[in-house]
Structure formats: structure tokens, C-alpha cells
Amino acid sequence: MPPASILIVDDDPNNFDVIEALLDAQGYQLHYVSTGAAAIAALDTLEPDLVLLDVMMPGLDGFEVCHRIRSSCTWATLPVIMVTALSEKQDLARCFSAGANDFISKPINRLELIARVQSMLLLREQYRQLETFNTQLEAKVRERTAQLQAIIAQDALTQLPSRAALIQTLSELLQAKSSAFAVIHLDCDQFKLINGSFGYTLSNQLLKAIAARLQQLIPSDGLLACLGGNEFCILLRQTSDLERIESLIQTILDSFKTPFTVSGLDLFVTACLGIVLGHSNYVCPEQLLQDAGIAMYRAKQQGTGSYQFFDPQMHQTMVHRLALENDLKLALDRQEFVVHYQPIVHLKTLKIAGLEALVRWQHPSRGLVAPGEFIPLMETTGLVVPVGLLILKQACQQLYRWQQQGWTHLIMSVNLSVRQFACPTLLDDIDQILATTGINPACLKLEITESAIMDNAETAIGLVEALRSRQIQISIDDFGTGYSSLGYLHRFMVNDLKIDRSFTSQIQILTSKYKVVDTIIALGQQLGLTVTAEGIETQPQLARLQQLNCELGQGYLFSKPLPAADIETRFLNGKDSPIMLVA
Ligand code: C2E
Ligand code: MG
Ligand code: MG
Question: What is the sign, positive or negative, of the torsion defined by CA atoms of 535, 539, 540, 545?
Fold first, then answer.
């Protein structure tokens, strides 16, 4: 270590000689200046560790010099000992308020001087250590921040730029006022299914393979980012050329036609894409990603392997959808869902055979809303599960009341959506409703669609069997509009086929659908199933169905769906007589 350097500032050179003599044996490097101005000027060249500063000097006095040292960025922590002949308490207080660390009175005592100098040099050393520590700490923080930024900028699984990195790039583009770019949001279809069937390890390998394949297709002005999960985003920096964008999209979609080989398995994946074009209206990158996401969502609604360009109308639809979703959640709490009942009639006798429970939403401002407007949304959000249970319970309670009134033969049909059918607690929930309402399960008929069955056929077989073992009847609703795969009918113990309204309505018109009704009725008879024709609106339709021996029917010709009280006054008020047809 080099010897400590001490700057002595005194207008009287004799005083320097005195100090020099007193500190002689200590091995310090002593410097001398005779004015305050010279002292300030010498700091940067001499870089002292301590200043011994005379108070009374012409020009800048000791107080002023000390004050300036304290105000300087570089020397603010440099220890200063005031050397003074003043002894009044307020003079010493002035020394400290000017920023001195210590003082020593003239005439100077050797031992005192040495002790005070040593103590101040120790302080200097501690400052130095603290500064070194601070510098190291700052460097560490900088290094760590850079590491974290690198982690944030990269997707851990695919090693692609992350959402944060993409947002940064998009910000730069927007700041540069560029609008000749396109953002493409790609989402792999039904990835949850892959996750559920093959587990996360294989799904992660698949995502890596997808990333690698996409990377090969990205042009030189493109950037492929991973938004997390099974979502990717492609930024094309220099294009607003629709043809070029569409050609890239087609290439991407085509590339998905080749399976991804992962762990020896060939996996087919499809993807949907949403595209948003750069526009001067965009100010923040999140907005671009949001719109690309909305377009992608639209593409999803069109089916797997689709793509859509964003248009502002989609935004409106999305806002409307979100508002509806919110309203629906509140509707459940506010008990705004009510059940209407539509009679199902024996076509031979025109006597009432049962009723179909159909949900309605009693909206505070819009009035009665039909299920077509909200069931599809409830299906995607999952709200159809609790609402469906509520309807099932209300319908069973109502059936119990009618049975108590003597209508013991009535069958109550209740719709079960795909989501409800896939709900793992379905059987328990139904058992509980049967137990609390006390109805005869044989009087309950559940209507499911072909897609509910085919979405997960193996589970569906077990479920249908479990329901049938409870004597509950099963009907296939909208028969013929779904998979139309007749093969499954042998495997499911269903009781009834419901002919969709779109076929019934064609009965009088000689189209190919005309024959569908005949065929379904014949098929039902062959398999020993009852057939219910839905949507009977006219006498000729009824006559034809009767001629074909279709057993049951439902439609506006008999009655529209009505509240329970109206059903009672119109159909359950006397003896079991044929239903009067609506003219
Ligand atoms: P769905 O189960 O096929 O019900 C028959 C639909 O056809 C009902 O429409 C009914 O009002 C209508 N309909 C019946 N006869 C005629 C007719 O002669 N002419 C015309 N034009 N229409 C007729 P709604 O009540 O609007 O229900 C539509 C769909 O919503 C139902 O089709 C069913 O899939 C679903 N849905 C209704 N209620 C529920 C429910 O509580 N749970 C579930 N999961 N879905 C329900
Ligand atoms: Mg139905
Ligand atoms: Mg139907």
C-alpha cells in the first residue's frame, strides 16, 4: 500500500514545517499549499487521503474550502481536520457545520495530532471499502439485471424470443412510425387434448418440434416468437403485401399436414391463425397482439386449420361477447334462468306423452332471451354446467308436482350439452337431483347430441350405460345433423332418436331431405327405438309422420314452449284428452 497522502493548507509556511516535524516518523506523504484556492485546485492532482485545513486564511478561508470540498461529487467524503487557533465553542460549531470531520487546536500537540490523523485515515479507508463494495454491488446488479432480461426475452422451452421480446420489437416498430408490417398469431388446435392424452413431457417435445418447423419457414424479415403454451407469433417486419402474407400462411398450414414425429410417435396437429396488419392507429404493441388474438379466436370458430385477418368489427363482437358472458354469470346468481316446457305428443292419439324442458333467460332489460343466443357461449365458458344442472333440477321438481297431480305417465325430456355430458361429476349430480326431487328415473329422458357421444366415445358408452342402469332414458337430439355415423347406434343403449326440425320442415318439399325423415323412422323401427319428430308446424307434416308410424312429435302445431302454469291450464287441466291443434 502506498503511504497515505495528506494535504496541509495554511497561509503560514511555518505551520507546515511544524506539522511536518510532528508527523515526521509516521511515513506519510505530505503536500503543502498556502491558499484555499490552491487547495481546491490540488485535490484532483494530489488525490489526498486527508486535509489538514487552516481556518483563518486570506481569500478562501478554511470554512469556505471545507464547504466546497463537501459540495464536490468526487471529494465529498474526503476527511477534513480543521487546524485552528480559535477556541470559542461557536467557532468549533462553525467548523462542523462547514462539514469538517474533526478539529485540532493550535499550538498543536504531537500525540493529539497523530491520534486524530490516524483516526481520520481509518475513516477514509472505511469509506474506500464502502465505495469498492458499492461499485461491486452495482456491477453485480447490472450483470444480474442483464441475465434476467435475457431470461425474460427468451421462451424457456423453445428458446424462441418470448412475448416480452416481441413486445419490445413491436414497440420499436411503432416508435419508428412503421406500419408496413404484419403480426400473425398462431395457436395449435386442441392442444389441451394432446396434453391430457400424452402428458406434458411429450407435449413439450411436440412444441419444440413445431417451433423448429415454423422457424424454417420464417422469411429473413420475420421474427418467430413463442407467446407461451401452444401459442406462437410471427412478425413480418417489412410487408403489407396481402399476397405475400397469405402465401406464408398457406405454407405454414401446409407444413402442418406432415405429422410431427415425437418419441417415435407421428402426431398430427392443426393450427389456426389470426393476422393483424400494421396501422398508424396502433400505439401500443399489446393492442396489436390483442387484435391478432381476436382474429385467431375468430379463425378457431371457423374450424381447425383456419385463418382470419382482423377487422375492427371483430373487436365489437368480442366486447359484446364479453359483456354477454358477464351478464350470464350474473344471471345465474340472480336466478334469471327459467324453464319453459313444450309438449311431446303421441302422434297416433295426439295425447300428451311428455314435455321438453327448454331454458329461457329472463333478462332484466331484453325480456325473454332464447337459448340459441346464449347456450353456445355458456358451452365455451363452462357456465352451461351449473345452469344445466339448475334446469334439470327445476324440471324434475316440476315433473314431481305434475306426477302428484296424477300425471304419472309424463316423461320429462331435458337437454344435456356436450360440456355437461363430459363433466366428471355428472352422474353424482344426477343422483343427487333424483334423490332430492323423488321422481321416478324412468320418467326422465336426457337428450344428448351426436357430438356429445362422438367427442369421447369410450367414456360415453360407460356413461350411457350408467344412466340406463338407473332407468333414465336417453334420446339422441338433432339426429342426422352431426356425425351421422350409424355405426355407433349399435354400441349405445339409447331409447329414442329425435328428428331434427330441419328435416321435418322438408317433409312437404320434394328434396333429398324429404327421404331423410322416412329413413330415420325406418332405422328407429329396425333398432327398436322410439322416434320423435321435432318442429312439426303443419297438418300435412303431421299426416305424413302419422303415415310413417312416427311415434312421437313436438312442434308449434301442438304448442310452443310455455311456462309451467300455462302448460297446466292448457294441457293438464282435465282428463287425458287429445291435444287441440294450433290452427
Ligand atoms: P333442441 O333441444 O333441439 O330443442 C328444440 C328447439 O326447437 C327449441 O328451441 C324449440 O323451441 C324449437 N322448436 C320446437 N318446435 C318448433 C317448431 O315447430 N318450429 C320452430 N321454429 N321451432 C320449434 P329453443 O327452445 O330455442 O332451444 C334451442 C336449443 O337450445 C335446443 O334445441 C337445445 O339444444 C338448447 N337448449 C335449450 N334448453 C336447454 C337446456 O336447458 N340445456 C341445454 N344444454 N341446452 C338447451
Ligand atoms: Mg332437445
Ligand atoms: Mg333438437
Answer: positive
391 lines ligand 1 (CB under 6 A): yes
Closest CA to 357 of 76, 567, 91: 567
Query: What is the pLDDT, as a whole number, of residue 489?
Result: 77
What nine digits make up the cell of 183? 403480426
Give the integer Cα–Cα distance in Å for 507 and 511: 8
Residue with cell 365489437: 316
Question: CA-CA distances (angstroms) from residue 102 to 15, 38, 554?
Answer: 18, 21, 104
Q: Which residues of the chain have pLDDT under 70?
A: 482-485, 487, 509-514, 583
| Number of helices (H), then strands (E), in the chain | 20, 21
Helix axes 426-437, 457-469, angle to 10 degrees: 20
Q: Return the ∠ at Cα 248 (arms to 243 and 250), rounded to 5°.
A: 95
Q: Which ligand is located closest to the Cα atom of residue 389?
A: 1
Q: What is the pLDDT of residue 514?
A: 66
State residue 295's pLDDT score.
96
**Grid cell digits, residue 223:** 421474427
**Among candidates 43, 578, 7, which has minimal Cα distance to 348?**
578
pLDDT of residue 157: 95
Annotate 39-74 with three-state secondary structure: HHHHHHHHCCCEEEEECCCCCCCHHHHHHHHHHCCC
Check: CB of residue 247 under 8 Å from CB of residue 186. Answer: no
Length of the chain in residues, anyone? 583
pLDDT of residue 374: 93
CA distances (Å), origin 440, targets 6, 64, 165, 485, 552 = 105, 103, 62, 32, 21
Residue 212 cell numbers, joined? 423448429
Cα(491) to centroid of ligand 3, in Å? 22
On whether the pTM is more than 0.70, the answer is: no
Does the CB atom of residue 445 touch ligand 1 within 6 A?
no
Domains of the chain: 5-131 (3.40.50.2300), 163-310 (3.30.70.270), 323-571 (3.20.20.450)
Dihedral sign from CA coordinates of 466, 468, 470, 476: positive
Q: Which amino acid is present at 481?
A: T
Report how far ligand 3's centroid is from the alpha carbon of 500 (Å): 5
